[in-house]
Amino acid sequence: MLDRNYKKIESDLIDWIRKKVKDAGCQGAVIGLSGGIDSSVTSLLCQKAFPENTLGLIMPCLSNPEDKIDAVKHAEKFGIKYKEINLSDPYQKLIQTINDYDSELDLEEVINNKNLAAAQGSLKLALANMKPRLRMTLLYYYANLNNYLVVGTDNRSELKLGYFTKYGDGGIDIAPLGNLVKLEVRGLARKMGIDPKIITKQPSAGLWDGQSDQDEIGLSYREIDYYIVDGEADAETAAKIEKIAAANRHKLELPAVPNF
Ligand SMILES: Nc1ncnc2c1ncn2[C@@H]1O[C@H](COP(=O)(O)OP(=O)(O)OC[C@H]2O[C@@H]([n+]3cccc(C(=O)O)c3)[C@H](O)[C@@H]2O)[C@@H](O)[C@H]1O
Ligand SMILES: Nc1ncnc2c1ncn2[C@@H]1O[C@H](COP(=O)(O)OP(=O)(O)OP(=O)(O)O)[C@@H](O)[C@H]1O
Ligand SMILES: [Mg+2]
User: Fold this and answer.
1) Whose CA is closest to 211, among 132, 135, 116, 130?
2) Whole-prediction pTM
3) Is 36 assigned to a binding site?
4) Which end of the chain is more exposed for a tag (fewer CB within 10 A), N or C?
5) Confidence band (pLDDT; 50, 70, 90) for 45?
6) With b meaning 16 or more CB within 10 Å and e meaning fewer, what string describes 151-173?
7) Mutate-to-test residue for ligand 1 from 123, 165, 212, highest number of ligand atoms within 8 A of CB
8) Which ipTM score applies to this complex?
9) Which of 166, 244, 251 to probe ligand 1 with, by most ligand atoms within 8 A of CB?
């Protein structure tokens, strides 16, 4: 699976991005830069497609400070224009606003801890998913302003599982990595000279301290990717993947509309 012609994939994806942006009547690309591998590869592809018209947005939201350092280093290494907009305060204020107006749940502990570890059950995800949705708002601000497309970073593994926030990091215009599973994204990243620290970092949505894709999904990318590409998996793994995929399929569809 890993034995792919990454040089050709790279140049085909650069051409594809250029065509999609031009066909949309747009002039460039805006991407969220997390310091993770998917956004590093995507931003570099965009930068090669539109060297002058690619904008990376670094948007920490009570995030691990290491990630911002990695994102800045990546942007500077490859000459990607970027801005940092820290969303921690607006995020906290939004939670405070909910707390002020809705007395049903007490969010003081979450607000004071600045950590979603204090939130349990559905509250944890409800608050966590607001982070990518705030980022999406900023990405579209810059897309509208500059006549750019919002370029998403979702890969084939995440799309198959629906492992993204609906209208958050899933709220995008195009997804250049959408036909590459995570292990293939790693192959492409190596070929493109992405910093090995970024390539070997544990994949994480970074929505709360210590979150990792593998722990949350309960499967490794090796298991997920071999199943997606070659159909190789034991019956239990295959069933688990299909169950998650079925539950999240709505994320890839348009909202249901009555047919009467
Ligand atoms: N059948 C259906 N038809 C239409 N809509 C349906 C639906 N079932 C739920 N929904 C709607 O969808 C909502 C649930 O979806 P959503 O809001 O996305 O929430 P949900 O899928 O519960 O959470 C997002 C997941 O993606 C992960 N994530 C997020 C961001 C980045 C990354 C990453 O890889 O870096 C991962 C995150 O850790 C979490 O596990 C429901 O509250 C409901 O509004
Ligand atoms: N702090 C952040 N600043 C800007 N964008 C972010 C930030 N955190 C997440 N994003 C955006 O959300 C996307 C989805 O996150 P995701 O974690 O799947 O990708 P990644 O961090 O690039 O790679 P990995 O999955 O290996 O962690 C990112 O690729 C990026 O575009
Ligand atoms: Mg990440």
Assistant:
1) 116
2) 0.97
3) yes
4) C
5) very high
6) bbbbbbbbbbbbbbbeebbbbbb
7) 165
8) 0.99
9) 166
How much distance in Å is there from the Cα of 7 to the middle of ligand 3?
A: 24
From CA 95, how far away is CA 107, in angstroms rounded?
Answer: 7
Protein residue whose Cα sits closest to atom 29 of ligand 2: 39
Measured by CA distance, the residue closest to atom 20 of ligand 1 is 165
Q: Could you tell me the CA-to-CA distances from 70 to 2, 57, 62, 66, 116 in Å, in that order? A: 25, 13, 16, 6, 23
Asked whether residue 72 carries a pLDDT value surpassing 80, the answer given is yes
96-138: pLDDT as tens digits: 999 999 999 899 988 988 888 778 889 999 999 999 999 999 9
Q: What mean pLDDT comes out for the span 31-51?
A: 98
Q: Is 106 annotated as a binding residue?
A: no
53 CB within 6 A, ligand 1: no
Domains of the chain by residue range: 6-87+131-251
| pLDDT the model gives residue 2 | 72
Q: Annotation-wise, does 190 bind a ligand?
A: no
Among 245, 236, 240, residue whose Cα is nearest residue 156 = 245
The string over 218-246, giving b where at least 16 C-beta atoms fall within 10 Å of a residue's C-beta and e elsewhere, is ebebebbbbbbbeeebeeebeebbeebbe
Integer distance in angstroms from the first to the last C-alpha of the chain?
A: 46
Cβ neighbour number for residue 31 with a 10 Å cutoff? 30
* Domain 6-87+131-251, CATH number (from 1.20.120.140, 3.40.190.150, 3.40.50.620, 3.30.413.10): 3.40.50.620
Q: Is 32 annotated as a binding residue?
A: yes
